[in-house]
Structures are given as C-alpha cells and as structure tokens.
Amino acid sequence: MKLKLVGGDSAGVVTAYYMCSDTGAGPERDELDFEFLGNRTGEPYIIQTNVYKSGVGSREMRHMLWFDPTEDFHTYSILWNNHQIVFFVDKVPIRVYKNGDKPNDFFPNEKPMYLFSSIWNADDWATRGGLEKTNWKKAPFVSTYKDFNVEGCQWEEPYPTCVSTTTKYWWDQYGAWHLTEAQKKDFAWVERNLVIYDYCKDTERFTKMPVECSLSPWD
C-alpha cells in the first residue's frame, strides 16, 4: 500500500495499516501491524510495528523514518510466509520476524488474515508517551492511500495446502525465506541508524526474554 500520512500537528493521532485474523479484533486474534504515531509540527513521525498471536502482542518495535511521510506517498509492505515476516518501507526491510518452527514459537501461521486500515485517537500513549494530546482544532486528520496490491492464497477450510511450504508461489520460494544480500545491507543500515525501541532488548519489561528473541533475523 502507498500511504501519505497526516501532515502538520498530528500529535495523538495514529494511522494503522495492518493484517488481522478477526474482523472484530477478537481476543484470540493474530495480527501484523504498521502503526504511524503522529507528532507535533516539526517533530519526526515514528513507525511502530507489532506482532500478535492468539490475542497476545507486546512485540513492539519502533523506528524513525528517513523521510517526511506527510509530503508524498511511500510504500509499506508485509511479506508473510511460513519462514519469516518482513516489514518493508519503500522496499527496505526494517524488521524481520523469524519462525523457529517449534511448538512454543510465537509465530502466527495458523489463521487466515484480512487487511485493514484505520485512523484513531490514541493521545493517551502515542506521542511522547501520552504527554502530547490531540489538538482537535486541527481536525479533520486525513491519511491518503493508493496503489494497493496483494498476492496470496485463498483460505480454504480446514487448512489450505498453500499455507505449508509448496514453493508454488514466489513468496513461498527459497528466495523469500531469507533476506537477499542487498536486503541484508539495507537492514543493517536500519539497525544501526533508525531503531528507537526493540522489545527484545527491554530487560526491565521482560525478566525472561520471549523465545523468538533468540532467533537471528539474518539466517
């Protein structure tokens, strides 16, 4: 999807573009999130990604962007197969989430997902931890979308064969199971320069790190 985000004073406003297994965001949902956290005029936008499995999330990462997402359209993509989930911004991988293929893995691969987008007031947490409140005098807040594209397999009960690795589709072939060498270089640059928060490094929040934190995104 190509998005152009809310310009000007957008503090407290969150634009979300995400995949979810439940049309009502139910308690047992799987979910893959892009969330764009608004700002006060002149401050940078922050992009937050998250992964849910069976209603449990708390897998947040936050990144700075290397451009102003309010000035023009940029492409935000998710690659999801049985080996990895990759969040892309303008074809640059900003986050890689691996499947360790173990019974206790926190990897959503058992439910189909729908695609959603929303814009909502989250001024209790979205901008500087809730210190900056939404200025409703600046409403309406508008995000713009275009050029949506999706490739995938249609879910068929009880469990379609295309969910397993068949190599029939490009996104399920070996080249999509790992980052390419060029993508690894881009990802390394993102890791060095743009990561603001990584739950896998939050030792105050997690006394025992989630099991997937031991998996290398480079493998």
From TrEMBL:
Every GH16 domain range: 1-145
GO cellular component assignments: apoplast
PTM entry text: Contains at least one intrachain disulfide bond essential for its enzymatic activity.
GO molecular function, one term: hydrolase activity, hydrolyzing O-glycosyl compounds
Listed GO biological process terms: cell wall organization; glucan metabolic process
Annotated keywords: Apoplast, Cell wall, Cell wall biogenesis/degradation, Glycoprotein, Glycosidase, Hydrolase, Secreted, Transferase
Cellular compartment(s): Secreted, Cell wall; Secreted, Extracellular space, Apoplast
Record flagged with keyword Hydrolase: yes
Entries under SUPFAM superfamilies matching the protein: Concanavalin A-like lectins/glucanases
E.C. code: 2.4.1.207
Family that this chain belongs to: Belongs to the glycosyl hydrolase 16 family.
Function, as annotated: Catalyzes xyloglucan endohydrolysis (XEH) and/or endotransglycosylation (XET). Cleaves and religates xyloglucan polymers, an essential constituent of the primary cell wall, and thereby participates in cell wall construction of growing tissues.
Protein name per the record: Xyloglucan endotransglucosylase/hydrolase
